[in-house]
Fold these 2 entries.
Entry 1:
Amino acid sequence: DAKTTQPTSMDCAEGRAANLPCNHSTISGNEYVYWYRQIHSQGPQYIIHGLKNNETNEMASLIITEDRKSSTLILPHATLRDTAVYYCIVRSPTNYNQGGKLIFGQGTELSVKP
Amino acid sequence: EAGVTQFPSHSVIEKGQTVTLRCDPISGHDNLYWYRRVMGKEIKFLLHFVKESKQDESGMPNNRFLAERTGGTYSTLKVQPAELEDSGVYFCASAPWTSSYNEQFFGPGTRLTVL
């Protein structure tokens, strides 16, 4: 089962920041927080991941609370093309024995509106 | 660089028939994963290859499903015989062999409909 809980759906106005929350209260010390998204009719797409420090890349920012029990994915200037289901995933380090499979939950359906 | 490709994009078969799905990972990626989403459910892990070896088969639903990756390049997932509950979208993903925490690159999926 997924170790994360997310709101089922959210709306965001185009051009505004989209803040997607995720709770992962049972996260272990060596588990990372990953975010993927699935745009309709496409395969999931990696966005960002982090352990305990805040992370930023060209797509988004990831803010992880100090106790690591929750995080927020921030899309700074949402566009209509960001409409998708966003998945927050807690994942153990990949190694040769563990495999690194992704365990998806229900995700948050983000609708960006004009 | 080409991404992960899957063939066919859609398949419609009748219950009891056999279907083979193919996945071509990104060149050089040792890790290959199969996932599926059945109607109304979450995306579920099926299995993981490292090169040609099955590393984790824990998500395979039953023995009607057979995955292979001969030569450690492309992979096939055969469903024989197909049942109605097998309908859904089957995703393949690949990842390079790095020390850890590597992202998985997903293909567009194969939509399987069993009538």
Note: Chain B touches chain A at residues 4, 31, 33, 35, 42-45, 48, 50, 55-56, 59, 91, 93, 95, 100-109 (CB under 8 Å).
Entry 2:
Amino acid sequence: GENVEQHPSTLSVQEGDSAVIKCTYSDSASNYFPWYKQELGKRPQLIIDIRSNVGEKKDQRIAVTLNKTAKHFSLHITETQPEDSAVYFCAAGAGSYQLTFGKGTKLSVIP
Amino acid sequence: GAVVSQHPSWVICKSGTSVKIECRSLDFQATTMFWYRQFPKQSLMLMATSNEGSKATYEQGVEKDKFLINHASLTLSTLTVTSAHPEDSSFYICSARGQGAIYFGEGSWLTVV
């Protein structure tokens, strides 16, 4: 089955700096890669996703890049703000969108 | 995005009893829903895939007789934790595919005392 590795597990950045979270996946059949933001005790919120026919996608301060050959994808958050502090999960899936999640990255943005 | 609603948000039950959690897709039809379990400070672990009109597909290590899943309509899947024990206490969350992406319900905190 699919295996998703996510790094780092914790990340602290100064407000205004950029944050980068990286994930690798094992199953070449995976073609859908969403990123979720989860605040304590709440549901994961989809923040951005990318499909394997696209190399990069951007939405305001958030961008995701995908390297199919190397089987890795990354989340980039620019101009970080305190409200960006949360746990971020990457995931990989195919077909019916049964997702396999990474272990999560706790992002802390220091004012 | 698509809306997935989960109920109840919080439930406390006694050991040995059963508790049912509902997952509804409010503005779309979901032939497939997914049930996850999340322990504190850990990732989401897929328990089972719920298929409308057929039996659920359980992940390895998940007891299907303990975690009963029923997906009787295109907008509702239920998870019943039978004969609950304290070790079943956890955050249970469902998701469904809508508008080309996966959206999550609010999650249900289960505490078994």
Note: The first strand of chain A starts at residue 4 and ends at 7.
